[in-house]
Amino acid sequence: MSERGENVGRYYDEAPFGAEVTRLKEFSPVEYAITLRHLRRRLRDATTVIEVGVDVGLYSEMLARQGHQLCLVDVSAKLLDAAVERLRACGLEKQIISVERVSATDLGCFQDGAFGAALMLGPFHHLLTLDERRRAVSEAERVLKPSGKLFASGINRLAYLRDLFRESPEKILARRDFIGQFLRDGNLNPEIAPPIGHAHLTTVDEFRGLFADAFKEVAFVGVEAFSSPWQVKLNELSGAQAEAWLDLIGKAETLMPDALGMADHFLYVGERQ
User: Fold this and answer.
1) Residue 194 pLDDT > 90
2) Mean pLDDT across the stretch 229-235?
3) pLDDT value at residue 184
4) Can you give the three-state secondary structure of the chain, one letter per residue?
């Protein structure tokens, strides 16, 4: 792997175990639930899936339960081990085809057209240069079959500014130069944003345009829509209430383009030509 890939891998190897599970289930339940809905809706027939950026295997488990065969890929050995153990504990280890510690920018260990679907729900958060992001898109296109589906996640650049204003607005003067650069390139570092480290946050046009030449767009949504800063409220609701709100969020993200600007995450769903 590249030096950057190794650095990202070490970052996650050293991060508190299960941090992403806690984030998704406790603090970002709308993001998790809406992403699951899109995966279930658009991957109805069992296929071979390459999941690049598995974390501890939350999405892997859902895909395995649906009968998909999985190739698990991550730059972190610790996360790969955790994902495999999750599936093993659920009795789903037979759904695993292979486990590879490689980067989204170089999937050379996989054959052309090997997969019916590809998940990249984390890699684009850590690819700091346009060249790296383009290579990841090119690799996704290469390993997918014709009409294969790509699911890719990007973080809204405005989310950092919103959280800075909410949590530490007094830092605006000290970070003025950094913010000017951030607005241009979208890149964060561990000193500025320790929870995510070296990261790239994107815009609607930038992220959407990244895939335009390689894929036919099936969907592009602002995952959390209007619920972004208040996602934890979902965990306080009854099952029926939660489902009703998720239905409404799903309608908003599909029918109202304004929802893109309010969301923390963008989800791109594309089909290989």
Assistant:
1) no
2) 95
3) 96
4) CCHHHHHHHHHHHHCCCCHHHHHHHHHCHHHHHHHHHHHHHHCCCCCEEEEECCCCCHHHHHHHHCCCEEEEECCCHHHHHHHHHHHHHCCCHHHEEEEECCCCCCCCCCCCCCEEEEEECCHHHCCCCHHHHHHHHHHHHHHEEEEEEEEEEEEEHHHHHHHHHHHCHHHHCCCHHHHHHHHHHCEECCCCCCCCCCEECECHHHHHHHCCCCEEEEEEEECCHHHHHHHHHHHHCCHHHHHHHHHHHHHHHHHCCHHHHHCCEEEEEEEEC
- Output the pLDDT for position 22: 87
Contact 193, 159 (CB under 8 A): no
d(CA 195, CA 76): 16
Distance (Å, whole) CA 28 – CA 249: 14
Q: Which CATH class is domain 3-156+202-272?
A: alpha beta
CATH 3.40.50.150 maps onto the chain at 3-156+202-272
